Prior knowledge:
single chain; mainly alpha; Arc Repressor Mutant, subunit A; 11 helices; DNA binding; TF_FadR/GntR_C
Amino acid sequence: MSTLRLSDRVACQLLELVQERQLQPGARLPTERALAEQMGVSRTALREAIQRLSSRGVLESRVGAGTFVCAHAPLWHEQAVAPLASLLRDDPQYRYDVLEARQALELSTAWYAAQRATDQDRDRIRRCFDDMLRHQQAQDAVNAARADAQFHLAIAEASHNAVLVQMMGSLFELVLGTVAQNRRLMFVHSEPGTLDRLTQQHHALMQAIIDGEPEQARAAISDHLSYVHQRLTQADADAARRQRLQRFSSTAESFS
């Protein structure tokens, strides 16, 4: 089993904190004591994580002042996903390629997470799920999409496979963008139970991991992504049908 060192895992969580709080270059992070308590780690592990991120140009520690997000530092995912992001902007159909990539990755991360998740991992997955529910109930689509993506990333980190975590981490913003897009497409002209169905699928996935059932976890993520694919295909077909009807109506009017 390939296990992430604690400092690597803390570094991943720090990166997520920067993303979640949308901290801009020059922004100061909370104190070491506050961060260590919030993340449930020792200050030694936290300092090692900060040092790792400082060596990558993401953070900067200033003696007596604290830790800051570096100005002009490239975000950790940009180089890996920039070409894919431009493809998605130019042709939204690439979201199906993203779904296939997620299927390939997340069947593995869910399976390993069910076997390897620690109590801290399980708590974090639960928090992400609860955040997603809270934002959905508030009809906050942007933060619901972010919490959705964070939920899947938390599961990847619970796999304790350094390569899988890095691959999912690199895809995080790309996944976030497609999750938000997918949610919009599925809900605009979708049946009322779509959101409930997605919530049930997320809960089943979470419960399988908490219960330590790898086969159930793998089946749950497979069912979830297959359902998303099905709903998107239907949404695309409905949109194409409406466009054909509009073109027909315009043509008919021109002959009337």
